[in-house]
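Entry for the shared binder. Reason: the reviewer on the internal report wants the predicted structure included alongside the sequence.
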Amino acid sequence: MKQAKKSLSKQLLISILGIYALITLVVTAAHIFIEYRYTKENIKSELNSIAHIFEPALQTAIWNLNDEQLQSIGRGIQKMPLVYGVTIVDSNNKTLYQSRLEESGTIDRELTYSFLIHQTLNGNSIYLAKATLYSSEQVIFERIKVGLAMLFLNALIKSAALVALFYLAFRKRGINFFVEEFFFCLF
């Protein structure tokens, strides 16, 4: 009878801890995915804001054929924290400005945001150029790495607390042999 009690308690403990580990893994993975998508959307929104800030100046520089002003604006855009590259191509597919930071050469996946620059003349919209801002998914990971570390630490603390509670509960019930053997194997 005592052997059956130990076997049943062992199966119960392994089942509970296995289910808890699986749930923790699924919830943590879902949290990471949601955080990643949310941060990526925020970065795209910030790139959109950068485009709206610089679009009027770009429009003026291109319309007035002011290459010096265009180059200055391009360098200004690239100095924004999210942007590592800028390309501006006119309506004839001629590159008016193109620049990327040198350390960006190793970027695996990049985020791009493109916008069209138009000038209105006599009620007609004239297409002037297309500007593309380049960012990196590395920016996403930089933003969420502290949150991910806290998430993993949180899961670890909860798991350790659960194991400790089971250890105490089984010891109190007098199932010492299995508990000591099981926890010796864990640690």
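Summary line for the report: The CA atoms of residues 147 and 153 lie 10 Å apart.
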